[in-house]
Specification:
alpha/beta; 318 residues; globular; eight-stranded parallel beta sheet; three-stranded antiparallel beta sheet
């Protein structure tokens, strides 16, 4: 699959970001049926044998949907691979994804030539998460097929750079596929990502408040009830800086305004245990002020499309 083929299958230039615990087959299938790329972290499938089951389920359900809706087929899906040395499942998970011929892969926390080549050999588009130009250049040099620019305001692990600054620098030397992340939760934001030079917007937090998300009701309601002021940026919980809901930090008995720094060498994204903090401390991006209710994915995407079309029409009038 190439970039043109991918875009042709999409209703909106939007990729649903993979979210630890939250993203599973139900959410991915709903996103793809709604016309945007759905994705999930391979590590969400536990035990590891469940990954093959999930991919079979997603593939079969989307194929059935496409047969029933030939005029409006589903968008492709993606699987996220954590390419960190602590992930002892990486080889297994990549092999399963190759066997199932996943359309897209998203790699995070490490650039690996062998992983890129394995996916490239079967025609899978590989996008790599980056937070600065140094990481972007390294990923491209090692063979990544595209980038996910994770900017300030993105949910979960996020960078510090403005999307204006990072996209400007990336496009000065790279013309390949780029998805832009950072507080995307409105149709205007999708259009803005394109205006900055991105091929896709990349959003996750707003889908936590969807009927199909694998999140507890309290987490979904916290997304609805909060806004950018309710987010804190810290590396305490995983060793990597990210954005989290202050409300969940307070419920854990911590002061979100006075959190200590964590040792980044203690990161662990392996298969033996998920960091307990992810179950008690809830990640979220700064864009959630646009989320006003818990709704099915189809309704969320319908809203985004209306907002996107309205924003485009307004610019044309100007």
């Amino acid at each position: 699959m190439n970039l043109a083929e991918l875009k042709k299958r999409m209703r909106l230039p939007l990729i649903g970001a993979p979210q630890f615990i939250v993203s599973g087959p139900e959410l991915v299938i709903a996103q793809c049926k709604a016309g945007i790329v759905g994705s999930f972290p391979a590590l969400n499938a536990r035990p590891k044998e469940q990954l093959d089951e999930w991919l079979h389920q997603i593939t079969e359900e989307l194929a059935a949907y496409d047969r029933a809706n030939p005029d409006r087929p589903s968008a492709p899906f993606a699987v996220n691979q954590i390419v960190h040395k602590s992930n002892d499942r990486l080889e297994h998970d990549v092999e399963v994804c190759i066997k199932r011929k996943v359309p897209l892969a998203i790699t995070s926390l490490g650039a690996r030539e062998d992983v890129y080549k394995a996916f490239r050999d079967i025609g899978t588009i590989v996008l790599h998460d980056i937070i600065n130009v140094t990481f972007a250049r390294k990923a491209i040099e090692k063979g990544a097929g595209g980038l996910v620019a994770v900017c300030s305001g993105a949910g979960g692990h996020a960078g510090r750079l403005s999307p204006f600054a990072l996209m400007q620098e990336i496009r000065a030397f790279y013309d390949g596929p780029v998805a832009l992340s950072g507080a995307v939760a409105h149709g205007r934001s999708i259009l803005a990502a394109e205006a900055l030079g991105a091929d896709f917007a990349y959003a996750g937090s707003m889908f936590i408040a969807s009927k199909e998300a694998n999140a507890v009701d309290a987490y979904k309601q916290d997304i609805v009830d909060n806004s950018a002021d309710g987010i804190v940026y810290t590396n305490l919980f995983t060793g990597v800086h990210g954005n989290y809901l202050k409300s969940s930090i307070k419920r854990a008995g911590l002061d979100p305004e006075n959190l200590p720094e964590s040792d980044p060498t203690k990161m662990d994204f392996g298969s033996n245990r998920a960091p307990k903090a992810w179950k008690e401390i809830w990640g979220s991006g700064q864009g959630i002020g646009a989320v006003t209710e818990i709704a099915p994915v189809a309704e969320i995407v319908n809203r985004l499309e209306r907002e996107y079309r309205t924003a485009r029409a307004a610019l044309c009038v100007r």
